[in-house]
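Aminotransferase class V-fold PLP-dependent enzyme: structure tokens wanted.
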Amino acid sequence: MSLSTLPATAFIHPLGHNREAVAALLQAATDRILAHLTQAAQQSPLPPVDALPAIALPELPADATTLLATIDQALTMAMNPAHPGYLGHMDPLPTTASILGDFVVAALNNNMLSVEMSPYFSRLEPLLMREIAHLFGLGDRAGGLLVSGGSLANLQALAVARNVKLRCAQTGLSPLEKPPVLFVSEAAHTSIQKAAMLLGLGTDGAIAIPTNRNSQMDVGALKAAIAQAQEAGQQPFALVATAGTTVTGNIDPLVELGAIAQQHNLWFHVDAAYGGALMFSEAHRDRLRGIEQADSVTFNPQKWLYVTKTCASVLFRDLGHLQRDFQVSAPYMNTEDDWVNLGEISVQGTRHADVLKLWLSLQHLGRQGYRDLIAASETLTQAFVTAIQARPFLELASQPEMNLVCFRGCPDWLPADQWDAWNADLQQYLLREANAFLSLPRYRGQNWLKVVLLNPYTTKEDVGRIFGAIDFFSRD
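Answer:
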């Protein structure tokens, strides 16, 4: 095979023939990354994208200078979650260990489809997932999978729920006499509706339950909806609770919902993609009391555990359901007596080996480190809420239950129909003048401002500066 047209650094030679050239390229790229990350606080938390490359597939190989220039451009215009003022979404700066893990895994390029294609990682993942499932109190038969995002985790959980409760893994939904439905909070993540659509229920098959004033699923409304669905000839099979809603960060009443699910023989799934991290804090894990009743749980370490994307998981009380009610064997793959090919029991086949960066992060920070991070977030949240409550022209969407605060301005010197525009203008003012990015979700038909107090380098002084800017804006 002639490789004369390829640059010397196109691949890393397995005998090390180009080691020095590759090392120089990697060192140059690493220097740029470190320079960017160690100066993140001096840049914008959300820089403008003011230039894009002219995309034309190159005929000839580019030199290192061109590659490094592309890296520089990406670094300059990318979202900057390392900035202490980046507060708008559940996107943290990553742990150093997870960056290393991603680098190692990318270099090895193993495939989580099967044990023989990822012999170490396919054994490490189920062991670690079993420990995390035990942390959630799911029992001795519990375990789970890593997947590429919370949407896939919810889809996997509800696919298993459908197959278990409706016995339709082989025949599909067409033989069913009654249309199946599930119940979910109106404040839940939109991935539940997508899952319902993909699983043949249609988005209408995810029946939205109203929330109370604190953005939690209304238990009375749920009971009425179950009765109404049964009277309408529908077949309820699952109940989805949320532990950490995307807009307000609230937690559904898990104890009561678990009891209702058991009473009506519903699969009980808890989307704790964000709030699941509270299980690492003895001081705050009681907020998730009742999650141990779940048949399945979505939990995303890529959020409050600070692991690089993607790193999401779906946990099952009885991991055996994946083999009994979901597995499709791949005859082109060898099998192991004691280890399952994870691609056969997952929505995904080929998959990145995310387990290493999670395991490295857990080792590097330890449970004590995560407890401290959660405690620090709680302290900042209290400071933020106190500052809101001290200003009559601001109001909370709900009482925060974790480190997410949703609020808006209701300036009484303006007509109410101008408040949405006032909040949108405030968001842009804070980004421009205070170097703070707050997101602007639509909730209850109105514009709100949302902060997620994740960054360990965000301080009370930063919070004070934000409210100083809010005060200045409100006087304008």
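The chain has a mean pLDDT of 96. Residues 355-389 form the longest helix (35 residues).

Cheers.
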